[in-house]
Amino acid sequence: MTNTAVTQLLKTLDAESVVTDARAMAPYLTEQRGRFGGHPVAAVIRPDTPEAVARAVTACHGAGLAVIPQGGNTGLCGGAAARPDEQAIILSLERLDRIRSVDAEDFSLVAEAGCRLSAVQAAAAAVDRLFPLSYAAEADCQIGGNLATNAGGMNVLRYGNARDLTLGVEVVLADGRIWHGLKRLRKDNSGFDLKDLFIGAEGSLGIITAASLKLFPAIRQRATAIVGLDSVERAIALFSQLRQASGDALSSCELMGRRPLEYALAHDAHCVDPLPAPHAWYLLVEASSSAEDVDLAGRLEQAMAAAAVGDYRIAGDAPTAAAFWRLRNTIPAAQKVAGASIKNDISVPISGMGEFIQRAGEAVIAACPGTRICAFGHLGDGNIHFNLTRPEASDDDEFLARWADLTAVVHDEAVRLGGSFAAEHGIGQLKPAEVQRLKDPVELALMRNLKAALDPADTLNPGKVVPLRDQSA
Ligand SMILES: Cc1cc2nc3c(=O)[nH]c(=O)nc-3n(C[C@H](O)[C@H](O)[C@H](O)COP(=O)(O)OP(=O)(O)OC[C@H]3O[C@@H](n4cnc5c(N)ncnc54)[C@H](O)[C@@H]3O)c2cc1C
Question: Band of the pLDDT at 473, cuts 50, 70, 90?
Fold first, then answer.
């Protein structure tokens, strides 16, 4: 990279769009898990129109500068962070933050990429509609980042991932052209569905600058319950029964092992053991409806009775429901206090989850005796965080040095059961080697072909997802 190239790039932008002071750049260089952040970049740029994004990308493309798109920087795989010795700029979408339109009759809205997820939810609520993507980082993450990672969260069971919620996208391509793909159509079979290429591509194929999104009827009532169970198989059977009995109104079905629950209880004084006796597993379920006259709580109650579930509670009011959710949402922070942990984010067909947990647990313990398995997550989506907390006697660094071999053990079990080694958080810098190792060779070749076709100069987020060039060089 030459100073001239950077100077040329910066000339394409106004002063407010450019950050080069080291202290001002620092927050953009950090990364959630502290594994990949801190590497310097030539500049952080913050354009506020798609045209300015396009001018910047064109300049970088011409000068051989890598462009790393960044949304709310809440990603968990280092996708928005620079790599060591990379000649790059960070392109923050934070100033592209307008809701362009909301159409209640169309059940759709158009948001620019830098809109925070909570702002999109609020814009929908203002017209009595629901934008259902929801999870703990919603106040910080941005809709562009959500699409780029095909984010999931707590309502996938009912409404799907970010991909399922997207009608169209506006994208700046690697050569600076803008694709105006902001359709609001539910049906369009007029050719390839190109938007799906950019969703989940983690900024490696194009920069999403806006999206048209699906809205749904606002929710009028919820019923939330927590159930204690002795096996994952029982949890899966109960999930099916509740889904049927609720009239397919289940929007969340979260599984928690006793260990993560105990971490949450120890960490947060406001967390309360939800049931009188401890259980090996807990299921947190929520049903929701846009209708007011459906007795959702009664339906859950009947299904619990029919399934002869011994120990459960249905929240009688919103604070009790919030207390159940607090247990679930406290787990990631609480786990940190117990010592270093190696994170996994796998999916398997729902019916295989019990076998996965059993086999992966045995394989991990054989490879690293004393590892504390901390399994929790979205059972209703077949996706759990099969996290590994270090053995009590071991040291954080010693355990973290085993990240690659212990995650490989877990990934192998997931893939063996027809699952995925990256169900929710994506690839970023964390898993390109696993993409190489575990993807079907034909699929891998197609992914590379697409990257080469859309970004032959490797300008956009190089080295992430499916590296075009040999990273060992
Ligand atoms: C507390 C917490 C809870 C979380 N829970 C969940 C969860 O339940 N489900 C879930 O799916 N994820 C979860 N995540 C992960 C994270 O929030 C998501 O991956 C989120 O979608 C990232 O959005 P972001 O705006 O922060 O993107 P960033 O972190 O800034 O970027 C993520 C990736 O997308 C690329 N990117 C960002 N914006 C654009 C754009 N406009 N165009 C092209 N590429 C872009 C970046 O280059 C990077 O590769 C959680 C994270 C935290 C910290």
Answer: very low
Question: pLDDT tens digits for 360-375?
Answer: 999 999 999 999 999 9
Number of domains in the chain: 4
CA of 328 to the centre of ligand 1 (A): 20
- The verdict on 225 and 309 lying in the same domain is yes
Ligand 1 — pocket residues by CB below 6 A?
32, 68-76, 79-80, 93, 113, 135-137, 141-142, 144-146, 148-149, 151-153, 202-203, 207-208, 332, 424-425, 428, 461, 464
Residue 471 pLDDT: 54
- Domain hosting residue 326, numbered range: 221-333
Q: Specify whether the CB–CB gap between 285 and 243 falls below 8 A.
A: no
User: Quick one: pLDDT at residue 33?
Assistant: 84
Please name every residue paired with 70 in a beta bridge, in sequence order, or none if there are none: 92
Question: What phi and psi values does residue 387 have, to the nearest 5 degrees?
Answer: -85, 150
On whether both 89 and 103 belong to a single domain, the answer is no
Q: By C-alpha distance, which of 245, 226, 372, 384 is closest to 302?
A: 245
Task: Please indicate, yes or no, whether residues 267 and 376 belong to a single structural domain of this protein.
Answer: no
Domain boundary among 289, 312, 333: 333
Residue to substitute in 135, 251, 455 for testing ligand 1 pocket (most ligand atoms within 8 angstroms of CB): 135
Q: Is 317 inside any structural domain? A: yes
Report the atom number in ligand 1 closest to the C-alpha of 113.
41
Q: Is residue 471 part of a domain?
A: no
The C-alpha atoms of residue 396 and residue 313 are separated, in whole angstroms, by 37
3-state SS assignment for residue 261 = helix
Q: What is the pLDDT of residue 470?
A: 56
Mean pLDDT confidence for 157-168: 98
Q: What is the pLDDT of residues 288-340, one digit of tens each?
A: 999 999 999 999 999 999 999 989 999 999 999 999 999 999 999 999 899 99
How many Cβ atoms are within 10 Å of 337's Cβ, its own excluded?
A: 11
Compute the residue count for the chain. 473
Q: What is the CATH number of the domain that holds 16?
A: 3.30.43.10
Q: For residue 239, give the CATH number of its domain.
A: 3.30.70.2190
Q: Are residues 278 and 174 in the same domain?
A: no
Tell me, yes or no, whether 444 lies in a domain: no
- Of 291, 309, 333, which closes a domain? 333
Residues 243 and 304 in one domain: yes
Query: How much of the chain exceeds pLDDT 70, in percent?
Result: 99
Q: Which two tokens stand for residue 282?
A: 């807990």
Q: How far is the CA of 261 from the centre of ligand 1 (A)?
A: 25
Yes or no: say if 279 and 260 are a contact pair by the CB < 8 Å rule.
no
Atom 19 (ligand 1) nearest CA: 75
State the distance from the centre of ligand 1 to the C-alpha of 161, rounded, in angstroms: 13
Whole-angstrom distance, CA of residue 257 vs CA of residue 377 = 9
- Do the domain assignments include residue 469? no
Asked if 207 and 229 sit in the same domain, the reply is: no
- Could you tell which of 33, 91, 149, 197 is best to mutate to test the pocket of ligand 1, judged by most ligand atoms within 8 Å of the CB? 149
